[in-house]
Known about the structure:
Blueprint: H1 27-36, H2 43-84, H3 89-116, H4 119-142, H5 150-177, H6 182-207, H7 218-240, H8 258-271, H9 273-304, H10 309-333, H11 339-352, H12 363-391, H13 397-424, H14 431-449, H15 453-456
Amino acid sequence: MGEPDYSAGAGPRTRNEPAGRGSTRSAENMAIFRAMAGAPTNIDALNQRRRLRNIYLLWLGQFVSGTGDSVFSTCIGFLVIHLLARKGGVEVGITRAMDALPFLLFGAYAGVLVDRFSRRGLMLASDLIRALVVGLVPLLFYLDLLQWWMLPIAAFASYSFATLFNPARDALIPAIAQGRNLFQVNSFFQTSSQLAMILGAGLVGLLLAPEVIGQTGPTGIAWLLALDAASFVVSFLCVLALRVPPGPVGTPLRRPSSLHELRESLLVAMRDARLRGLLFLTAVDNFFIMGPAIVGAMFLIKTDLGLDTWAYGVFEAVLGLGWLCGTLLIARYGRRFKTGQLVIAGMCFDGITYVPFLWLDSYAAFLVAIFVHGLTIPLITVGRTTLIQRHYPSERLGRIFALVAITVQGFTALSAFATGAALGLDVGVGPKQLFFIGGICGALCGLIALSFKRLRDSE
C-alpha cells in the first residue's frame, strides 16, 4: 500500500474547508486512512456492496442469455422439421448434436485458455460472437435463403464459443463470491438457469400457441431466434459492468505452452481418483440421459401425442420449474450432506424418474413426470460444481470445468445423434422406450458410483 501524500496543500481538510481536487480521496482510500489511525472503517461494507453487485450482474446476464438459449434449444429442432417438411429424425439428431459437439472437440483446450487469459474478457468476446452467429439465422430466413443444413452449422459455431464462456463463468464465481458460502452462491446461480429455462421455453409455448398469435410455423420461430441473439447483447453489457477483484500476486511471468498445460490437465485428471471417477460417471450418465431429454422428447410431443412446438415449450418450462424447486430445496438442506453423496444420489434419481415414461399416455401425465425428474437434477449440478470449487485450486478451475463440459456436453452430442438415428431409421424403438432404457442405465450409473470411495466421501 502506498503512503498518504503529505505534500504542500495536501494536508487534512478542516470541516469547513471546500473540497478541492487535490485534497479529495475515494471513499475506499479514506476508509483505509481512517483504519490506520484507529478510526472505524467501512471497507467491509464497500466490499460487501461490490461483491453483491457483481453477483447480481452475473446472475442477470446469465438469466437473460439463458432465456435466449432456452428459446434456441426448444425451437431449433422444430425449425429443421418445418424446413424439411417431413419427420427428419436423423437431421434433427445432427442439429441437436451440434449444440454439444464443440465441447467434445474443443472443451479441454478452451479450459487452458480460460486459465491463461482474462476470464471476463473471454466471456465478453464469446457473447458478442454468439449474438452475431445466432442473429444470422432469422436474417437468412427473412431473406428466404435459409436451408436446414445451415442450422447445425450455426449451432456448432455458437456453442464453440460457449466452450469458452461456460468454464470462464464457473471459474470466476469463487473470485466474485469472495468468501461467501459457495454452496449457496452456486445454488443462487443455478436458479438463473432454471428461471431462464422456464421463461424461454414458456415463451415458446405461449407465443407459438395457435390461439395466441396463430403462427406455429417457422415465421414465429425466426422471431424468437432474433430475441435469442439480442439476449447475448444484454449478457455482454452485464459482464462488461463486472468489477472483478485482481488475481493473486506472484504469478510467474513465463508459463508453459498451452499444449503442455493441456497435457498436464489431462494427466492430473487421470491421476486424481475423485476427479477421474466424477468425469467418467458424468460422461456415461449423460450419454444415456440426455438424448431422450433433448431429441426423444421432441418426437414424443410431435409423433406420439400429435402436438407441436408450443407443447414442447410448455414441457421444457415444466422441467425448468421442477429444476428450480429442486435447487431451492438443495440450497436449504444440501449442506447437511456430502457433495459426493449428493452427486451420486442425483444420478440414481435422475434415471429412476425416467422409467415411468414407458407407461404414460397423456400430455398432462408427461408434464407431471418431467416436473418430478427436474427436481432431481440440482443434486448433480449444484453438488458437482461445489465439489470442484472446494477441492481444487483456483488456477486450475478453468481446465477442470472444461473437462466437466466435455463429459456433459460432449456426451450429450453423442447421445443426441444416437437417439436421432434410432428414431429416424425406425429400428423399432420409440421415444417412450428410449426414456425407459436411458433411465435404467442412468440409475445403474448412480449405483456403480457408490463403489468410488474418493467421490462418495467428498465433502
